[in-house]
Specification:
2 copies of one chain form a homodimer.
Chain A lengths: L2 H15 L4 E3 H5 L15 E3 L4 H13 L4 E4 L16 E4 L6 E5 L4 E5 L4 H9 L3 E2 L12 H6 L7 H4 L6 E7 L5 E4 L13 H4 L8 E8 L1 E2 L3 E9 L2 H14 L4 E8 H7 L16 E9 L2 H17 L5 E4 L3 H11 L10 E8 L2 H19 L3 E7 L4 E8 L4 H13 L23 H4 L2 H14 L12
Parallel strand pairs in A: 2-4, 3-4
Antiparallel strand pairs in A: 1-2, 5-6, 6-10, 7-11, 8-9, 8-10, 12-14, 12-15, 13-14, 13-17, 16-18, 17-18
Chain lengths: 464, 464
């Protein structure tokens, strides 16, 4: 791509959607590439359409001119799912930030794709409703990005993933066709459920421009505990015990292996240990309910019987909302893994029965494979989702990374684990897709890609 | 299609999967066409493969020989979604009835597609687990059919539809390719979520042969009430009130308009009225929990505050499990609509704010349009799903049906309602698909059909 062509792209897009709506290559390069990344964006242009029609205009022009398009939300993804090449156009939804409607009776929100998760959470609260998706990047991540990557987060065990919260959506196809499928209904079996095509496909099949999202009644009360288990089978048993005895109110079940617990409860972390640091496994458990007295009684009963049956050996039970925030603060203090080295973050999923064998093997073999390192394990255990973080010296990162990926991913094949529980594939995990998906599955994915984006212009090279 | 060809089909299929595994046209015609239908099956042959590989063999042969295939589960569908023509092959999953595994720790069931819903429900109970899908046809409907039609039923408000319970599946494509995507994980974002293609596509994109289903902890307690509301806005308010105050334990919210309540609580129905018959609206509300004492207290508190705020005007609260069964018995006694006339059953979905205007208009205008008739309205109100039944004299059915369909469906367009909440489209609702889906949406459905079934041999003519 020559300089002349770049000028053409910028000028052409400006003529379509306005002078200020399009950044040229130089201005684009002044922006950071995303969360926890030192590099900068690159692209021939960055288009910032203000409406679905403008998104369609950009795509139509790029389609005609055979230019690839990479769609950007809040750039909080962790798998290089939004990287662009210098000859490609970035399409950012940053100017599509309107909450079009909150409908308290239907319990739905209609939003443009560039609205951030936290903005919607707060808007729902004003109506005593809740948008239950929640994750650390809530202030920056957009709802369009959450949908395109099928985001998970902290309360999947109760409310499901983003896929389960999308009732309808509008998407623009590669050729600029607008598919408006803004369903507001919980049940709609009138033909194929088209929204499923776009949710979790990482911008490779279409650009999500608007969404209808399901809201829930706001939780009125919450109860939490930080507990210790003396072996992993007790962790698994405690999950079933709480799920069963909380009868529909269990809202989070987050596990931490000892090393992670010690990390986030020792200086320089600001968190203090709610219970002693010498147990092998810790769990943060949360129940969301509606009645302060009865819910507390139920929660305490469930904790008591867990103690009696030996499933847990130590516990701190929240006495206030501020205790709850402190507990979550420990869980979310992932930044501690950035001190003293370079953290490589993994997001895997595996059957709970295999989890202990998997993590023990990893703990045993990683040293032999890569030498000095730190290893932290924690995650949404209730969903079978573990985050594994391997920290290495920064100067060794490039050399060690492929070896570490091999150690983390390869054993998953044996028990149909997933190389991506919630972060997606992007470019980063593409070499490992075959661990979790068969050739036939990947061939079918390619058929879908060919059917919806025959020229391959949407987020090219990602996933497949 | 000539007689000679029919013989070829039967003989060829028998050579592939065995003599007894294939019925000829005459034997096929001895079988009934399905629930509540007086007619019989028709097809060139009915193949009953016993394994995924045999399903693949049948499809491969039919693909090569350009013969269309209609897949059959339990034939409990209500929209002519499984009708076959005399030159087509019916593929029945009736010999694929194995529950391959119940995994209590992972809380999953792995089943062949021909297992009935009730069989799985009972198998899960043996492990103190629950498969939460539930509907009247549970004894006959198959899990493959439930998935192919994205079945709904009585507890969608708590557990979602069938789509939400399928973790993985195996499907055979039109050309016989087996796509095995038997994911056991709650979270798996490794590429496109292929199972979504097959769920709810009514056998038009592939044949589901096996499923991995998510099980839940068995509910230990339940509380129910039958209540009366004096206007519709109180019904809607009562839904939010109970959802909010039951804090995650609400498991059903079924509404009945007065005429239906009277029908199922008056002779010849065996049900007795738990509360007086002169209110305009009735609701059956259910909460599933885990603690007899606390759950009952919570349920009664919520009912009490509903009374105090005037949302409900009369109520019978269950005192025993047998009361609960009686309450459900009333709700499910749809057979009463078959006395004294021919019932035409509708399954629609619409925003709750529009519901009363919609039903009032229907009650007002139907008489002028079709003359003497009976009209019953009830349904899964918590999901926005109403069942409308119009009963006419049997001899008038054929003449009146198109007029009634017009009256029921046409007004839904104005507020993006759905002509099919949970029953699907099949042949019956195909003329009305355009009320709920735009031309662009239908065009995208056609692209998907063309990508997965380019020769159009799978359940041809259904949906599109």
């Amino acid at each position: 791509m020559t300089g002349d062509n770049e000028v053409d792209i910028v000028a052409s897009l400006r003529s379509l959607i306005g002078e200020n709506a399009v950044l040229d290559a130089a201005d684009t390069a002044s922006r950071g590439a995303g969360i926890w990344r030192p590099d900068h964006l690159q692209a021939a242009a960055l288009a910032r359409p203000a409406s679905t029609e403008e998104v369609a205009q950009v795509l139509r022009w790029c389609h005609t001119n055979r230019i690839s398009v990479v769609t950007h939300g809040g750039l909080t993804g962790l798998v290089r799912g939004a990287d662009a090449e210098p000859d490609q156009v970035i399409l950012s939804l940053e100017r599509m930030r309107a909450i079009e409607e909150i409908n308290p009776q239907q319990r739905t929100a209609t939003v443009q794709a560039g609205v951030t998760l936290q903005t919607l959470q707060e808007a729902a609260e004003e109506h005593h409703l809740m948008f239950p998706l929640d994750l650390g990047a809530r202030g920056t991540a957009t709802l369009g990005g959450n949908a395109a990557t099928n985001a998970g987060g902290n309360r999947v065990i109760r409310y499901g993933m983003m896929r389960d919260m999308v009732l309808g959506l509008e998407a623009v196809l590669a050729d600029g066709t607008v598919v408006s499928s803004m369903n507001h209904l919980i049940k709609n079996n009138a033909g194929y459920d088209l929204k499923q095509l776009f949710i979790g496909s990482e911008g490779t099949l279409g650009v999500i421009t608007r969404l209808v999202l399901r809201l829930r009644e706001e939780a009125i009360t919450r109860n939490m505990a930080f507990v210790a288990c003396d072996n992993f089978s007790h962790v698994a048993g405690f999950l079933r015990h709480m799920d069963r005895n909380l009868g529909g109110t269990l809202s989070a079940f987050e596990a931490m292996w000892r090393e992670y617990y010690c990390l986030v409860t020792s200086p320089p972390a600001r968190g203090k240990p709610p219970i002693a640091q010498d147990y092998p496994f810790y769990v943060l458990v949360e129940s969301q309910g509606a009645d302060r007295e009865l819910d507390t009684q139920r929660f305490n009963n469930a904790m008591e019987s867990a103690f009696e049956s030996g499933l847990i050996v130590d516990a701190a039970i929240s006495q206030s909302e501020s205790d709850c925030e402190d507990f979550w603060g420990l869980r979310d203090d992932v930044e501690q893994t950035m001190h003293t080295g370079f953290p490589i973050v993994f997001d895997i999923s595996l059957p709970i029965a295999e989890m202990h064998k998997y993590t023990s093997t990893l703990q045993d073999t990683l040293g032999a494979a890569i030498g000095k390192h730190k290893l932290w394990i924690f995650g949404h255990l209730g969903d079978g989702n573990l985050h594994v973080i391997v920290q290495v010296p920064p100067e060794e990162h490039t050399r060690l990374r492929p070896m570490i990926e091999q150690q983390v991913y390869a054993p998953l094949a044996a028990f149909q684990g997933s190389v991506s529980a919630e972060h997606g594939i992007g470019l980063e995990k593409k070499p490992y897709l075959g661990i979790s998906r068969s050739d036939t599955e990947i061939a079918l994915m390619r058929s879908m890609k060919a059917a919806l984006d025959p020229t391959g212009m949407l987020n090219p090279g990602k996933i497949l």
